[in-house]
Amino acid sequence: MALSAPGGGQLNAEDADNFEEIEKQFAVKVVQHMTTYWSLLTHIPGSKLKLTKQDDAIFESFTAAFPDFDVKATIDEDAMKSKEGKAQWREWIEGWKGKVDDYNFGAMVRGNAGWEYGEKETIFAVRMQFYGIEIARNRAGLNDWIYEKAQKEKAEGEASAETAS
Prior knowledge:
Number of strands: 2
Strand content: 5-15%
Radius of gyration: 18 Å
Order of helices and strands: HHHHEEHH
Shape: globular
Distance between the termini: 48 Å
Largest sheet: 2 strands, antiparallel
């Protein structure tokens, strides 16, 4: 994804100040990604969802690089963002450069697969962290509850509509 500098030129992230417009574009893209993913999970069980063409390779690489990462547990954001954690994540993420579009672009990750997105339940991460964690959660069936809940609410809404007519 390319962000534009004020005036429409190509942005060089190395030379950029924190332009307010850039930050707004960035936030919009992150929120769009988050809401699109949640919508997908309400329509397709996570265990049947494919996020990229490289899900298998991402999953294998993620589990090899982070063998102790427990997808059922709440993410320890402090450990993830510690000096050691950042170094480990950075090494893994950079391995995807040129292989996954927007591999290092911002994304929101739920701190726990059992939580919905919310201010206190969400961690700011990069796209590859999102892919690694969410592909692993989906493979474990941990996001299927979202689809099941949405289908139950849909059925209840349809039943209420029939009763009302």
